[in-house]
Structures are given as structure tokens and as C-alpha cells.
């Protein structure tokens, strides 16, 4: 194909989440004419913001790690790196309120020594585990480091049984493995595939000293995933159609593609389908992948966020996580949300929230306000300016054992059709990192079908 022919090649990306935005940027960077169709009135998919009075609220607090090289590429590409800074060094305050002797604050920290010594001092000083438990955690971490997350056999095993076989007590699971695992996998250890757990812990804790340093948006997520992403797409000439659902996807007689919406049909040489697994199943043309009904067997897992606006400052740190309490992670979103006046806005992020996701607001209020008072003494005398919850019932795919077999790769059997989404076979759990990687892989599939593999920094990052 000549460059001229390539320049006039057209691609449609269905879905404007992080996977779709990434695919569109990569295809446009390679010189294609790209249209993005997004059913909602904004870009960003599952990671978005909305207005509530004077606040701009994220539907759920999102963090990423320094090892998320593809998401960091994305931030850079849309000009958002400085808006979502990383910690200089991993430092997680862990407040244990479940001890008879009273609350105790510990920290999970790293230093600059080479792997695995970067965590040894932090683990040795972690007060929420006994000496014997800390030693057993070290041994299990080294054993985990020897696993190959790509070994399909690992996907059939659950992480909880593996931890038990490696001498991990219920306390080490609660105070360390699930503390990190629930937040990153969105499931407890018994409900997690060992392959995905090994991926998270190996990449995050055992690849490089700084791999697990945490970053998050200091602005509303929508400012990065919608506003900046939109500007980046506009800058490379991508046509973005919001409030536009793709309703059909068919092959043309000429071997191209036709995408139907309620208002028009768009012809294309290549298509990236970057929608959730159920919607993918609904749009996927016959013969595109083996056993398409398997997509319907990929479960989902909920995340609940509890939002509390106090009339004064009750938390001095930017965030902390709790033990001995139903509260998981608490983030100060005051500045990011635009709250004015003397108050403080805290977002409580509850992963794997199957049991709470449908509880009425009043019940959640009755549960979380006293619990926050237990964790934060200053909250006991503070007034509540606002209390609300956000519920994402299908926040992520369920990382259950066996899920690896159900996740298709980016390539389909039909030329020019690529699949993307955090739920596809990225090797990662459902994360922003997985979404960006999947979008890049699907763009590669489309470009290859057009006879053009386009070298791109993201291929290295991924
Ligand atoms: C509350 C919450 C907290 C999270 N926390 C974290 C975290 O801390 N760290 C992290 O890395 N990840 C986190 N995640 C996961 C992360 O947000 C997702 O993995 C990622 O955003 C998925 O992106 P995606 O592009 O694959 O899919 P989606 O975001 O689901 O995008 C798919 C898009 O397709 C659109 N669509 C669907 N059907 C059609 C159609 N027919 N036509 C056109 N458009 C269509 C949808 O409207 C949607 O915008 C969290 C998710 C939630 C919900």
C-alpha cells in the first residue's frame, strides 16, 4: 500500500474509554482517518467525573503505579503527566484499629536498594505482622517471584489456596496480601486467579525498586480522560461522535467494514471494537473469534465509593488504608474536587464490594460515618456537609480462576477487526494500564491488516 492510499485509510473505533482513546490516537498517529463512536456524552468510559453542586466528583478513585508504563505513556500523550503525579517513593499509611491495645499506624514503604532488598527494611518495620509472619511473607514473595504469570496452569489455581500452601496465615492475608490485592485485583485472594495475582505482585513489587510507587489524579479524572484526551484526539484530526452508539458491525462485499449507528452508516477499512465484553458479544460478527459465547461467562466485580464532605479538616494525610475496619482506602479529594471553604472531602474506595453494592444510602451512612469516626478522631466532632455514594456494579471483570481462558486477544479472524478493552487478554487485571495496552494492541492489529506496522513508543512501553 502506498503512503497516499494509507493516508486515506479509514478506521472506526467503537467505544471512547481508555482503550478506545488509545487505539484512536495510535491509528491517527499512523496517518489514518479515524472516527470514534462513544455512546455516552463524554470520553473516559469507566474512569470519569461528574458535577455535584460545587464539587467535581470522580465515579471512583483511581490509582496507578510507576510500573504502569502504558498508562504513563497515555498521560504523557494527552499532556496529563503533571496532573497525576507519582509518589517519590512507595509509602502507604496503614492504620490498624482492630487491636485490643488501640489503633496503631504502620507503613508499607520501600527504599532505593535493588529488588528484593528495596522492600526488606519496610517489611521488617511493618508493625501489623509478627516477626514470624513477616519472615513468612518474605518467603512467599520470593516464591511468587519465581512464578510465570503467563503459564496457563496458574490461571486455574486460586491465589488464596496458593498463599495457604506457602504458609500464609489469615493475618498475613488480611494485613498484606489482600490489602494490596483487593485494591488492584478487585477480588479477595480466594476469588483471584493466581496468574493475575502473580502478575500484579511480580510487576508491582519485584520488577524494579520504584515499580509500586503510587500515583493518582490531583484533578478530576474527567479533566484527563475526557477534556485532555479530547484535545489530543482533535489535534490529530480524529472525529469524535459522542452520544452515538454503534448498533451494527458488518463486513462489506469489498472486504471492508460498515458500522451502523442510529443516524448513519460509516464505512471503514479497519475497526477497533473497544466496548465491554457483553457489548462486544452483541456487535461481534459471526466467525470473528472462537466460542464467542465465552465472553458472556466473564463475570464482573463491583466497586463502591463512599463520599463524605466534612465541615472541617479531619485527615492530615493525602490517603491511608485501614485494617480491622470495613473501610479499605480513604483519599482526600478536597483540592481535586474544587471544594471551597474550610471543609474536607474524603472518598472511601471499597473494592470487591459485592455485599454492599446494593445497600441503601442510609444503611451505608449508618455504617461508614461511625467507622470513619473510629479511624479519624477529628471526625467525631465534625459536621457532615454532604454524604453520597457512587456504585459501579461492573467496575472490572472478575479476576476469578479460569478467567484467562475466556479473555480473547486483540486479533480476530476477520481482517482489519481488532478487539480492545481492559477485559481482553492483556495479562493484566482490569486496570487503566490493561485498557491502554489493549487499545494499542488492537491498533496494531488494524495497522497490520492495512499492510502497515507502525513503530510506536507504546509498543516498547507495553
Ligand atoms: C470505581 C472504579 C474504580 C477503579 N479503580 C481503578 C484503579 O484504581 N486503577 C486502575 O488502573 N483501574 C481502575 N478501575 C478500572 C478502570 O477504570 C478500567 O479498567 C478502564 O477504565 C477500562 O477502560 P476500557 O476502555 O477498557 O473500558 P470502558 O471504560 O468500559 O470503555 C468502554 C466504552 O465503550 C462505550 N460503549 C459501550 N457500548 C458502546 C456502543 N455500542 N457504541 C459506542 N460506545 C459504546 C461505553 O460507554 C464506554 O465509554 C476502576 C474502575 C471503576 C469503575
How is this structure best described in words?
This protein is an alpha/beta fold. Helix content is 32%, strand content 22%. The protein has helices at residues 3-7, 18-29, 69-77, 117-124, 131-145, 159-165, 170-185, 194-206, 221-235, 277-283, 334-337, 361-375, 432-449, 457-461; strands spanning 10-14, 33-37, 49-52, 55-58, 63-65, 91-96, 104-109, 214-216, 239-241, 246-251, 257-261, 265-268, 270-273, 300-310, 319-323, 329-332, 344-350, 384-397, 417-419. The strands form five sheets. Strands 7-6-15-16-17-14-18 form a seven-stranded mixed β-sheet, with helices on both faces. Strand 1, helix 2 and strand 2 form a beta-alpha-beta unit. Helix 2 packs parallel to helix 9. The longest helix has 18 residues, at 432-449. It is globular, with a radius of gyration of 23 Å. The two termini are 27 Å apart. Bound molecules: flavin-adenine dinucleotide (FAD). Flavin-adenine dinucleotide binds at residues 14-20, 37-40, 45-47, 59-60, 62-64, 245-246, 274-276, 279, 303, 392, 395-396, 421-422, 430-433, 435. The site of flavin-adenine dinucleotide has 36 residues, from helix 2, strand 5, strand 18 and helix 13.
